[in-house]
Structure formats: C-alpha cells, structure tokens
Design a protein that fits this description.
Blueprint (H helix, E strand, L loop, with lengths): L11 H10 L2 E8 L2 E8 L1 E4 L5 E8 L11 E13 L11 E16 L1 H16 L13 H8 L2 E16 L6 H12 L4 H12 L5
Antiparallel strand pairs: 1-2, 1-5, 3-4, 4-7, 5-6, 6-7
Helix pairs in contact: 4-5
Length: about 200
C-alpha cells in the first residue's frame, strides 16, 4: 500500500485498537495462479512470545485454504469519507480521507483444541453485551462436531504492519478545522467517525 509520509501511522496501541474494532478483514492470497480474497473476522492476540498474531477460520468449501502458504496479506478497512473541495478557502480538488491497515503474515492451519479455543473466543467476543447470548460450550456436541468439520482454522503471525491514516494532514489549521466541522455535521456515521479521528490529531497540527 502506498502511504504518503504525512499519513504514515505508527502508534502501535492505536493500530491494535483499530484492528480489534474493525476485525472483519479481507484475507488476500493466490489460488490457481490468480488473486483470491476472503472476507472474514480475525481475532488479534499475542502468542507465547508476546508477538502479535491473528486467528480465524474459513469454510472448507472455500478452496483458498488449500494454497495458503508463505506470505498472505490481510486488510483491515476503517471509516472513510469524501472530502469536498468546497470546504477549502482556496481552489483545490476533492479527495478521500480514510484509515486502513495492511498486515503481511505467515500462516498455518490449526485444528483440534486450537480451533475450538478460537471459536469459543470469537463467539464470546461478539456475543458480549447481547441479550440471550450464545456460547460454543452450550451447543450440543453432535451439532458442534458437524459444524467444525466444515471449517478450516488458520493462525497468522504478523510480520509487517503498514498503516495509513489519511486525515487531511496536508491542510492548514483553518481548513483542517472546517473539514472537521463539515464532517461532524454529516448525517453519515462513517463521516462522523472520520471527524472524530481528525479531532484526536488536532493537537499535532
């Protein structure tokens, strides 16, 4: 991913929080000689050495897992917003603000207890705070076994992180604040979220 120097995002704690918040990712590799992408939730955690890793699963019917080897790319997409040049006090062109993280990972297949631990953690995380929450432990053994047979567990060790926070860092204070004002007044939630992210960075101007 091309990242302009002004937009390079390097705060590890912020990036980890972003991945956890935007955990529905895109797994990119090759299959049969062509690019192949799968959309799936991935859980961020630490291995026994404290290194960041991701865990997830794909359908066994999805052929991508059969050629998962060497290095894969995982994309986490966050909020984004169109930036109208009518918001500037000078002539310019429209653009787009966004947050995105690319993780380059090595991958291995997991099964047995490792896969079950992943599934329990995944369900518990996304059921948190919901009424009538479900859990893997409460599912019947026969039903659970039939479902797990249709899955392939994956574990991804993160080797590189490339993160971009393109948030109008190239604008002066007057224009920057007006962009925040315009986005904050938008009826669209993603645009409000971009305004919030820009507010956090105002002190760095």
């Amino acid at each position: 991913m091309y990242i302009h120097p002004l937009n390079r995002w390097e705060e590890e704690s912020e990036i980890s929080e972003f991945i956890q918040k935007n955990s529905f990712a895109t797994l990119v590799s090759t299959y049969a000689g062509r690019p192949w992408a799968t959309h799936l939730p991935l859980m961020l955690k630490r291995d026994k050495n404290g290194d960041p890793m991701l865990s997830g699963h794909v359908a066994k019917a999805n052929p991508q897992w059969k050629e998962l080897r060497n290095e894969v790319l995982v994309i986490f997409q966050g909020p984004h917003a169109y930036i109208s040049s009518s918001w500037y006090n000078h002539e310019n062109v429209p653009t787009w603000n966004y947050l995105a993280v690319h993780a380059y990972c090595t991958i291995k297949i997991i099964e047995g207890e490792e896969l079950m631990d992943h599934l329990k953690s995944l369900v518990d995380t996304f059921e948190e705070g919901r009424p009538n929450r479900v859990s893997v432990e409460k599912m019947s053994e026969k039903y659970l076994e039939s479902q797990v047979k249709a899955l392939v567990g994956i574990e991804l060790k993160i080797k590189e992180i490339h993160a971009s926070a393109k948030l109008s860092q190239n604008r002066d204070e007057v224009n920057y604040k007006n962009i925040v004002k315009q986005l904050g007044a938008s009826p669209f939630q993603t645009e409000k979220e971009i305004a919030s992210e820009m507010k956090k960075r105002m002190k760095k101007l």
